[in-house]
Amino acid sequence: MMPAFFDDLTKGDVANKQRLPYGIPVSSFGAPGRLSSAPTWVQRDNNGRFWIYQDQRPWKITAYTPGFDYRFSLTFFHRVLAFDTDANDNLYVLQEGNIVSRFDANGLSAIHWALPEGRESGEVIHASALAIAPAAGGSVFIADDQLARVQRFDSELRPMPLPFMPWGWIGREDLSYLEFGVYTTEQKYRLDRPQRLLIGPDNLLYVDCEAFVARFNLATGRQMPSERMTSSAGRYLHRLASHDSGSR
What we know:
CATH class of the domain at 115-248: Mainly Beta
Largest sheet: 4 strands, antiparallel
Structural class: mainly beta
Order of helices and strands: EEEEEEEEEEEEEEEEEH
Distance between the termini: 17 Å
Number of helices: 1
Radius of gyration: 19 Å
Number of strands: 17
Strand order of the largest sheet: 3-4-5-6
CATH architecture of the domain at 115-248: 6 Propeller
């Protein structure tokens, strides 16, 4: 867990609030570089810089140096659902409304895409998660919790159908074929409301569903033996993400 120190300009040092010589400053005012609540999502890029999102209005992602010195903040009109960085430290942000934005490492050169709505390849109903393959020019994976599938795009958000899957995406073509999460050697499975994607240190794509985690080969979309848990799948992904971030 990341350290943080109390730095509220209205209260000063009071009981149970201790100033520490490291961490991220916190302020009730939400001043530049200060967090007004606990971080919702922490991402570390290849150069060790931190991107921190707080899931409250105004929706913003704040950038810090490896030593947690404030760099800048990005503010969004729509709630942020997921974000990730690529091998060149570009930041991709998925927002509500099927909007994807890309920024360079300095928060500039912004490009925005509105994902087309529909059920065909390259289309979404409700984009719910995003992850970037770690290789240079890495693919962008986007989940749809309404269509129960994950699609692959290139760095410019052009569809890149997966060659192993006849219909080009991870997930069944016929959404009513099998019960949620069933795995067979013929790839006859169904994802259940995917809410988070993560590229693990084993170079597999992890899909956090309602009650299980599924794993897939990045290049082919071929499913690996399922990860099933009695507790929250999200906690498993949190531990995996911590391991992945520490290895960068």
